[in-house]
Amino acid sequence: MKRGFKKVAFLLGVSLIYLSVMSSGIWADELQNTIKPRTAPLNPAYVEYMTDLNNGTIDALTANDDFTGYIPAPLKRFESTESIQSFTIDQSSSFPAVYDLRETGRITSVKNQQPYWCGWAFSSLASLESYLKKDVTTDFSENNMIWNNGFDGEPNDGGNVDMAIAYLTRWSGPVSESDDPFGSAKKTGLLPGYHIQEVNYINSPTAIKQALMDGGALSMAMHSEGFSNDRYYYNPNAAFYYDGNAATDHDVAIVGWDDNFDRNKFVITPPGDGAWILKNSMGTGGGDGGYFYMSYYDTYAGNEVTAFHNAEATDNYSQIYQYDPLGATTAMGYDDNTNSVYGANIFTATAGENLTAISTYALSPKTTCEISIYTDVNAGQPTSGMLKATKTVTIPQAGYYTIKLDNPILLTEGQRFAVVIKYTTPGNTEPVPVEKSFPSYSSAASANAGESFLSVDDTNDWYDVSAEDDVNVCIKAFTNRQEPVVLPNILYRTHVQNLGWQSWKSNGGMSGTTGQSLRLEGIEIKIDSPDYDLGVAYKTHVQNFGWQEWKNDGVTSGTSGQSLRLEAIMIHLSGADANKFDVYYRVHAQNVGWMGWAKNGDKAGTAGFGYRLEGIEIQVVPQGEAAPGPVAGAFMEKR
Fold this sequence. Notes:
Blueprint: H1 7-26, H2 28-33, E1 38-39, H3 44-55, H4 59-63, E2 98-100, H5 101-104, H6 119-132, H7 142-148, H8 161-169, E3 199-202, H9 205-215, E4 218-222, E5 233-234, E6 239-240, E7 250-258, E8 275-279, E9 291-295, E10 305-307, E11 319-321, E12 330-333, E13 340-348, E14 353-362, E15 367-375, E16 386-395, E17 399-411, E18 416-424, E19 432-435, E20 452-455, E21 463-464, H10 465-468, E22 472-473, E23 475-481, E24 489-496, E25 500-501, E26 505-506, E27 511-512, E28 520-528, E29 535-542, E30 546-547, E31 551-552, E32 557-558, E33 566-574, E34 581-589, E35 593-594, E36 598-599, E37 603-607, E38 613-622, E39 635-637
Parallel strand pairs: 6-9, 37-39
Antiparallel strand pairs: 1-12, 2-7, 3-10, 3-17, 4-7, 5-6, 7-8, 8-9, 11-23, 12-19, 13-18, 13-20, 14-17, 14-23, 15-16, 15-18, 19-22, 20-21, 24-25, 24-26, 24-28, 27-38, 28-32, 29-30, 29-31, 29-33, 33-37, 34-35, 34-36, 34-38
Helix pairs in contact: 1-3
GO molecular function, one term: cysteine-type peptidase activity
Pfam families: ChW, Lectin_like, Peptidase_C1
Organism: Acetobacterium woodii (strain ATCC 29683 / DSM 1030 / JCM 2381 / KCTC 1655 / WB1)
């Protein structure tokens, strides 16, 4: 049987990684002093699996080839204090005693993974198909997932749901079965039918039941040796109960439960009644038409349960920014007392866009993410530039999540922006999810200097993990194309010494005079904006009177017929859409000339000098856009 792993290279790589991880604990104080983070310890099951694979001692390979295909991930899932096998099953009235998705129509047909070891792909897509079944019947391509997941090995070399999550959340899939049928040759370039923006890790029996009722089938990892061992599986009852400690080797889909399933139906009698109803991917010939019942007390009942209960239209976002196509293969943090760490990615916008959402992993239940978005950041300094938005969320379950920003953030082509997240993961001292290359598993992962950073605080003391450790933080950013902005027309006219009221000017045109030593005596400003709820307010500093009251929407500010000069002005927008725009204005002042651009109610002109205003220009621009020109020296005051 062909295997895609380079075994000798792998063992050398694992040895070096293990030494590195062990060293991080020994040298913890030194690393902390240099602000160098440490990497999470390798999942012992991953090390054992890869070692056994090299030695040819994986039990299931010879005894039961058809059911193998599970590879433990390098990053072990966080374990809560509530054990999934402790039989804390809620048998109260909050759940029915029996629930079966086959009876509700929320399940797709049983499939057959043979001849490949890829139950992980079938269980993952079974969960997604079940979630969508409430509205539409779908059939997704496991073939595309096993050929194009991006990880090492070939379709028959196994996998896990972490690979499925990476494939789906980078928008490589899901692809339709009709476009890439199972068993066909590798196809690339096919477009996904949906965008997957969320995946949940389910870590309690009660949560499993709730997720089944709310969203449909779930993926679960198990040990499948019992199917070929009469000690663990009784085919007439489709009853499976494994009480050993051999490693997991297969993924199946949970489709329901039966609290009353008689313990005596199993070969070995478990401590109590009850079973999960599971859908296999070995065709309809075995068990109950391809389904079977696993005792609540099975060693791996409820193990690594994953809900693919999200699918969004592919026009939800127009662009995805990411450095982690293989997802969270490990995590990083600092010392044993720190479960709050900052992670950040710096991206460069490829077009004029609106940043509307970000995504990341929550590595333990009740993870808190404090998100900050900065624009115009300096290279290597995620928190430099302008802070444009903040948002804090606490995520009840571990998994992968997309968080929508409260307001879109305007980006321009070539603009650097940073997504900074303070991760707080209760009980977990490696809180930042990262993508790292591991031999014979995720060797395609790579990083470039200046992409990803970690810090113990939110100062500019950032550690470049992409440059120093060749890893990337698992933060993605999502944008939408900017619709052409229809700017409101701002209209204004001035009353000029000896000339009276001039004609209306608009959108940056100059009103008044220059080089004629004629004072402005009054001004009227209004907005022409049928597409927006906008108004304009303004007040002027008048000779002998000082600052007048605010005037609105075309009412005269200043004087007429009194030969009094305007010396300064303030302008701001009003109305429900005022926060969508900025108003800029500059004045031509006696003895000064054109002054800097003022903005949104700031003062423009002079006070205390006796200088007249002679001309003015006013512009409205989209909120956050650069000023029309220099802003320094917009106002001078003599005290």
